[in-house]
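Changelog note: in this version the structure field was regenerated for every chain. One regenerated record is shown below for reference.
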Amino acid sequence: MNINFKLYFKYILLNANQIFLYNLLRHDVNTNILITQKSFYYLMLHFKLSSLFYSLQLSDLFNYELPTNPVNNSPINITNLQPSSSITVYNFHSILAQQRFFIFVVNNTQNVIKKKKSSALNCTSLTELFLNANWLEREASELNAVNFEGKKDLRNLMLQYGDLSSPFQKSFPSIGTREIFYDSITDTLIQTPVSIQF
């Protein structure tokens, strides 16, 4: 199947802000798209319902923060985002075409445009379109503090319940602030502030 996916995506997202990133290694097999949150769900509906992307599966989802400073009055790209902004990367694999699609979604572009600061990073949930996105979104929301809008399953995967620390964020402290002990008599975990003893 020899299809120019760049032209196809430009046709679908004609009025959307998107940037096609060029991958130097095996660029005939990978298609990289940097897209805003506003038109992300529209693209995912095309991924799910279009016959061109039959047998497309979501392989991986991860999130990372950008340590860059914003540049005022310039279009949205990787170099002018707020320091608190993050990018969620969706890795899709087409079994029939043997191609990979990496979708880079900027989570808080509306805050960049309106010049408002917010600590919560919002992203649209894909659980209704791709069922395996449930576990991947639970992991990203727990470790990176990304709020997936429309997500019903909000349980923790790795951290204990009630822990809202988000250890993969850059603002996470590198020293411990609590000590956790297991009490075998009451069968509970006891948390106390760190006590330094010499």
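Spot check on this record: The first strand starts at residue 18 and ends at 21. Residues 5-157 form a domain with the Beta Polymerase; domain 2 fold (CATH 3.30.460.80).
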